[in-house]
């Protein structure tokens, strides 16, 4: 072991540029003193989730004067005064990226101290921060006018006022999630306040409606738009967005769980978004095969998520004519069958990712189709498909040698033999999920865990939400049978009572 304070260590660390000591429980202010004296050339420093205090904060500007990237995420032992130290000596004036996620002890004054010390910050990440307010952001923006990207996930008290404050900067990327105080008002002047914005992630922001999409339509540089879980968005808003120049540049569009969307707006999507690569309409339950016809005409698409929609085999047959799709997700689509997947695979020879999870109606036929037509497959999820057997997986293992990720959770018929086949045929497998696989032994799972990088395993019965029991029988059918039996028993009991009365 090489100790930080030794002469050898000082020689080796002199040219060190990246240092990650995150989650290190033994890191102290004293050890940071040795590190700072030995490694003056560090550009990237990750101190996240450590117990460093103001003493370490005092060391940063004194020794790491070239520091550009600093993560203090979940470091809760330093105070506002520690942030004031960043202005000492040469200061951290070259700092470009700063992560303060989870540092709930920082007040408005602390953010003011950061602004005085690190006015060159361009990328700011502050997640899991229930204490973050509009005033905190305003204090920072007063002097940090070079900020170009902000990530605020889990900051529920941020409101439209933050957007107004950030308009003083040349914002190119914003990411908010789980916020109820942000409304359409923040987007009303976005084309004037944020003319160069490229990425917008506003996930699970319930205050956003169709009005926001209309306001976004004039943006000329927008390439990524993620409004997943913004449940008040509908066809009218999407149509208004597509009327503007933003639609022609958009490359990634995520409208998952926007349940008011339907086929009506998808027609225009195919007309305007000719550069679109990634599309997610997950759980847009009103989307049908008619909408899929329009999606199939977006020839730039490489990835589409239609999970939880109302599509059937007809929609899959239409998508098969696209021929350029590399990723398809149709999880929880109860109208598709083996035939639809089979036809799609036959026309999708470049397919790399397929998710058909929680489609219990599917069988070995789809696995065999993948093995025949989609040999470049790298990721497959058949979780919640209880009809899949070892024989089909043997064929997949023999043909799909590039498989990296496999989820077979709830495939109750699979046995240890399947793991042996995977070990022989899929040597690039890195992630294997096999929860609720009751016929796979613990011994075989342990042996497989030494081969893959990440594994999840359990031999318990599938939970109720999988929709079938440990033998693969549908719980709905069982419930209906139980109900009929109950009704029959009631009728017999009534008849016997009447007979006795006579």
UniProtKB/TrEMBL annotation:
UniProt-recorded name of the protein: F-box/LRR-repeat protein 15-like leucin rich repeat domain-containing protein
InterPro entries assigned: FBXL15_LRR, Leu-rich_rpt, Leu-rich_rpt_Cys-con_subtyp, LRR_dom_sf
Stretch list, region Disordered: 476-502
Species, as recorded: Rangifer tarandus platyrhynchus (Svalbard reindeer)
Domain F-box/LRR-repeat protein 15-like leucin rich repeat: residue ranges: 12-140, 246-452
């Amino acid at each position: 072991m090489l100790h930080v304070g030794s002469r050898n260590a000082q020689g080796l660390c002199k040219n060190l540029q990246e240092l990650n000591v995150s989650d290190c429980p033994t890191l102290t202010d004293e050890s940071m003193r040795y590190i700072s004296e030995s490694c003056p050339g560090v550009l990237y420093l990750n101190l996240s989730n450590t117990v460093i205090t103001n003493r370490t904060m005092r060391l940063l500007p004194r020794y790491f004067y070239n520091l550009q990237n600093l993560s203090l995420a979940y470091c809760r032992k330093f105070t506002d005064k520690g942030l004031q130290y960043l202005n000492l000596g040469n200061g951290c004036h070259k700092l470009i990226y700063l992560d303060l996620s989870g540092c709930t002890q920082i007040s408005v004054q602390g953010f003011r101290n950061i602004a005085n010390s690190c006015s060159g910050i361009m990328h700011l990440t502050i997640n899991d921060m229930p204490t973050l307010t509009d005033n905190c952001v305003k204090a920072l923006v007063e002097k940090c006018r070079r900020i170009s990207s902000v990530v605020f996930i889990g900051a529920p008290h941020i409101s439209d006022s933050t957007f107004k404050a950030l308009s003083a900067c040349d914002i190119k990327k914003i990411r908010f999630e789980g916020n109820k105080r942000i409304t359409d008002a923040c987007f009303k002047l976005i084309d004037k306040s944020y003319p160069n914005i490229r990425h917008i992630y506003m996930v699970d922001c319930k205050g956003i409606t169709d009005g926001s999409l209309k306001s976004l339509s004039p943006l000329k540089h927008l390439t990524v738009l993620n409004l997943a879980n913004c449940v008040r968005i509908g066809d009218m808003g999407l149509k208004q967005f597509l009327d503007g120049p933003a639609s022609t540049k958009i490359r990634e569009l995520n409208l998952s769980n926007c349940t008011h969307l339907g086929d009506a707006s998808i027609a225009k999507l195919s007309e305007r978004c000719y550069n679109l690569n990634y599309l997610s309409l997950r759980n847009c339950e009103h989307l049908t095969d008619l909408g899929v016809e329009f999606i199939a005409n977006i020839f730039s698409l490489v990835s589409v998520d239609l999970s939880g929609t109302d599509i059937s085999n007809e929609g899959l047959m239409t998508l098969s004519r696209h021929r350029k799709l590399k990723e398809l997700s149709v999880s929880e689509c109860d109208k598709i069958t083996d035939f639809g997947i089979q036809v799609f695979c036959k026309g999708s020879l470049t397919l790399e990712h397929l998710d058909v999870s929680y489609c219990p109606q599917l069988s070995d036929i789809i696995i065999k189709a993948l093995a025949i037509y989609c040999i470049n497959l790298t990721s497959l999820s058949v979780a919640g498909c209880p009809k899949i057997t070892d024989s089909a997986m043997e064929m997949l293992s023999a043909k799909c040698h590039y498989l990296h990720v496999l989820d077979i959770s709830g495939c109750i018929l699979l046995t240890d033999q399947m793991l042996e086949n995977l070990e022989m045929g899929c040597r690039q497998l890195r992630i294997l999920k096999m929860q609720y696989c009751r016929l796979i032994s613990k011994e075989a799972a342990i042996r497989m865990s030494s081969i893959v990088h990440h594994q999840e395993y359990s031999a318990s019965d599938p939970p109720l939400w999988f929709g079938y029991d440990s033998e693969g029988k549908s719980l709905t059918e069982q419930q209906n049978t139980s109900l009929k039996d109950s009704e029959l028993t009631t009728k017999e009991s009534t008849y016997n009572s009447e007979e006795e009365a006579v």
